Amino acid sequence: MRVVRPSPAKGSLSRKQVRTVVRATHVVPDSEGWKVMPPAGRNRPKRFRQEGDALKFAAQASGLGNGIVFIHEKGGKVRKATARSLVGSR
Questions:
Q1: Is the pTM of this model over 0.90?
Q2: Cβ burial, residue 69 (10 Å; 0-12/13-18/19+)
Q3: How many structural domains does the chain have?
Q4: Angle 76-78-73 (CA atoms, 0-180°, nearest 5)?
Q5: Residue 32 phi, psi (nearest 5)
Q6: Separation of alpha carbons 42 and 2, rounded Å
Q7: What backbone torsions phi and psi does residue 72 show, to the nearest 5 degrees?
Q8: Is position 67 within any domain?
Q9: In this model, does residue 89 exceed pLDDT 50?
Q10: Residue 25 parent element (H or E)
Q11: Are strands 68-72 and 25-30 parallel, antiparallel or unpaired?
Q12: CB-based contact 56:88 (threshold 8 Å)
């Protein structure tokens, strides 16, 4: 049986914030260009040579989750988080 301990209040994410990140679509730099990682448990990551193509695909893929796209830098840090409607979908 897995025991989930309450997290300390300082510097932690709420369950709602964690769910938001897990259900989001992530655009990550890759050795071959850009990789779009759909929401957890949905499809496989897809690779693109250009960032623009990856962002267009991410806008469509974000409809599978909560409509949020996280765009990462090379180091993994989130450069931008945006709602699906701002990326150009709909």
A1: no
A2: buried
A3: 1
A4: 50
A5: -100, 5
A6: 24
A7: -100, 155
A8: yes
A9: no
A10: strand 25-30
A11: parallel
A12: yes
Nearest to 89 by CA among 64, 66, 57: 57
Q: What is the rounded CA–CA span in Å between residue 55 and residue 8? A: 35
Q: Which two tokens stand for residue 80?
A: 């931008």
Instruction: Identify the domain containing residue 49 by its residue range.
Output: 25-85
pLDDT tens across 29-76, in order?
999 899 998 877 677 889 999 999 999 898 887 775 567 888 999 888
Pick from 13, 43, 39: nearest CA to 26: 39
Return all residues near 30 (Cβ < 8 A) that are at least 6 apart: 47
Task: Please state, in angstroms and rounded to a whole number, the distance separating the CA atoms of residues 10 and 23.
Answer: 24
12 inside domain? no
* 57 SS3 class: helix
- Residue 53 is assigned to a structural domain of this protein: yes
- Residue 20 inside a domain? The answer is no
Asked whether the beta carbons of 27 and 58 are under 8 A apart, the reply is: yes
